[in-house]
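ping. complex inputs:
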Amino acid sequence: MGTSEFDDASALRGSGPDFGAVLDGQWDGQGGTNGGFLLSLATRAAGLVLPFPDPLVVSGFYLRPGSPGPAQVRTEVVRSGRTTGFAQAGVYRDGKEVLRATIACTDLAAAAARGGQSYADGGPPGLPPPEQCQELKAAMAVPITLVDRLEYRVAELPFWLTGKPPSGTPVYQGWIRFADGREPDLLALPLFVDAVAPAALELGLHHVTTVQLTVQLRARPAPGWVAFQTRTRFLADGYLEEDAELWDSSGRLVAQSRQLGMVLR
Amino acid sequence: MGTSEFDDASALRGSGPDFGAVLDGQWDGQGGTNGGFLLSLATRAAGLVLPFPDPLVVSGFYLRPGSPGPAQVRTEVVRSGRTTGFAQAGVYRDGKEVLRATIACTDLAAAAARGGQSYADGGPPGLPPPEQCQELKAAMAVPITLVDRLEYRVAELPFWLTGKPPSGTPVYQGWIRFADGREPDLLALPLFVDAVAPAALELGLHHVTTVQLTVQLRARPAPGWVAFQTRTRFLADGYLEEDAELWDSSGRLVAQSRQLGMVLR
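pong. complex structure:
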């Protein structure tokens, strides 16, 4: 047993390169296991086979929906260099691959110690502090177990909780953290970027599935709430991108992600 | 022989899953073979082993610098579904893997025929037409063969051609096309997103290498010039993202990319 719901649910058995896991049905979105959760699982496995402490950038392609039950994570060390290691991790259910991920790892503490120039064009979303925000507690038609593992706070409730029509502006902002008090770390960030409802719901879309998701991990998050902003800028021919930014409680950018989503009919 | 410099240089021999190629030294940037060119090569190989005509999203991890000489592209069909196929492609030089790529393919013409809702928050960069722009012809200290394969037009010359100091604004905009008149297609777009000098040069950085690059292919480009915009928003601890957008001559978004770059010392 781990020390939190997330660590329990993403625990890996074995010594590699192949690991055993159990998808416990508690991290599911509309279409099966949350894609961010699966990517976190693959990222954890990569960390076990590479001699670097921190994931730096992870990319996952979603091949099939994930479903509750026993799973395998099969890893391959692609290259282990001086500052960066690369691994591949496939997540399998019933012998079928549901996620193919590639992960680069490094030592972000060493990178921070080397320092260097900084630049930021933009900052965290302009949100009231979490205690002045509203809890986003979804009363949904379809049970989405994922939202019970997390706590969300928003300045403005989305249309699907107020009965209003979609706003036409596909941007969501708010605060997120684990419901059980586990602090965020780099492994949690691939989950967090994908744990928010698709901003494209605000365009009137109902079902969007992820084809591919890339997450850049930019710094180890400080304890506390994580601020998120997700946004879609372009939708055409049934495809859209969604970008997410995560900022830790110290106001630092800790992750940037982009996914390609496909509208389901 | 193909019909253009690009098609010749990215030609693949064999019937798969492993293909032969030759890196001819004519698509090189500061640190070896251009990363976008290598990703185009991997994307071409994926198209040969999947029953879908169009790349949809490609992700590449850069393991080692590419150099001129014989190369291999080893592919694996990861899954071939109803609307989307997934393949992996590794590019090898001297038996060592330089790029590990994953590629999703689909039929974008069929997607366009299905149609659906559209949304765009933003459009092509506000550039004068190419004939009113200046040719960007680099007289560089280091020979970068890539820039002789392409033609660039810009509204404003970058600081490294005018002798001014870096602007501090890491954004580049302009027009791009093949120098030999070959029209753009989806295979050219992974090259184009990475064929522009890093916008972070405008921050005073000198050497940036790509760790990972994801390219979303959003539509088959119309003939003619392609408008590009590249931009970096966040640099810290030696890492930065660079986003690129490509727009075809009809004003349509045809590609969006994001890369994680690492500052070299």
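Chain B touches chain A through 56 residues (CB under 8 Å).
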